[in-house]
Amino acid sequence: MVRGALRPGSKFLGRMELFSQGEFQLIRREGRELDTATEVSVISHNQMLRTEFRAFAGAGLFTEWLLTVINYGNEPSGPVYRLVEQVFGLLEAGAPAWPVICGSVVRLLQLSGHGFSTDVCVACGTGVEGAVCWSHSSGGVVCGKCGEAGFPVKSGIISFLSRAGNSSLESLARVRLWPGGYIQCHSLLKEYVQVHLERRLLLKSEKVMKEILDAGH
């Protein structure tokens, strides 16, 4: 938040836009909750994120996840910053939003300490293959012997979540699931986070993303 940024003649006008990337010079004054911005230069406008509705909706949904999962403050976080750069860069370049969003949410959960297991049963520690169950409260997949602790999840979703934790977002953007697969994946992640954060998530951009998909665009 920069006070006066939109005033006519402001030196910040045109240099601060939604989803744009900039370099700021700040002054921190003792006893003030907010820093004072004195200079700003544009690194990337990310114009596509504001003019193409699919990219805009995807960037909005990722930002809502970011503000929900990550505890932000005055301390810098290089990994989070680089993840934001990667997500916005891919959406700016026209990458499909759903795989990028689902993959980036997995990364956000890892960075926030809320990661989950996709390859080893969280109940007994044995490796899992084929059909598995999932337990939100336990933190991931459970094997057939421990399946009573969870509910069935399609193997394609588990495979994607496993790949999301170890592969680049660029490669995830090329992964195709069945119609509605990414909606199911996103719903699983949302339910998982609600259990671990112990509160309901209100992601306004999620509705827009689903409406775009339902409209066939």
Provide a descriptive summary of the structure in words.
- The chain has 217 residues and is α+β, with helices and mostly antiparallel strands.
- The chain has two domains: 1-45, no CATH class; 48-214, Recombination protein O, C-terminal domain (de novo design (two linked rop proteins), Up-down Bundle).
- It has helices at 48-51, 53-69, 78-92, 97-111, 155-164, 169-172, 181-197, 204-214, and strands at residues 21-27, 36-44, 132-135, 140-142, 151-153.
- A three-stranded antiparallel beta sheet has the order 4-3-5. Strands 1-2 form a two-stranded antiparallel sheet.
- A hairpin with an 8-residue loop joins strand 1 and strand 2 (36-44).
Q: Tell me roughly what share of residues is in helical segments.
A: 40-55%
Distance between the termini: 34 Å
- What's the total count of β strands? 5
- Number of DSSP helical runs: 8
CATH architecture of the largest domain: Up-down Bundle
Query: What would the average pLDDT be, to the nearest integer?
Result: 91
List segments where confidence is low: pLDDT < 50 over at least 5 consecutive residues: none
Structural Rg: 20 Å
Q: Given this structure, which CATH class of the largest domain is correct?
A: Mainly Alpha
Which sheet architecture does the biggest sheet show? 3 strands, antiparallel
Strand order of the largest sheet: 4-3-5
In what range is the share of β-strand residues?
Answer: 5-15%
Could you state the order of secondary-structure elements as H and E? EEHHHHEEEHHHH
CATH topology of the largest domain: de novo design (two linked rop proteins)
Instruction: Write down the domain tally.
Output: 2
Q: What is the approximate shape?
A: globular
CATH homologous superfamily classification of the largest domain: Recombination protein O, C-terminal domain
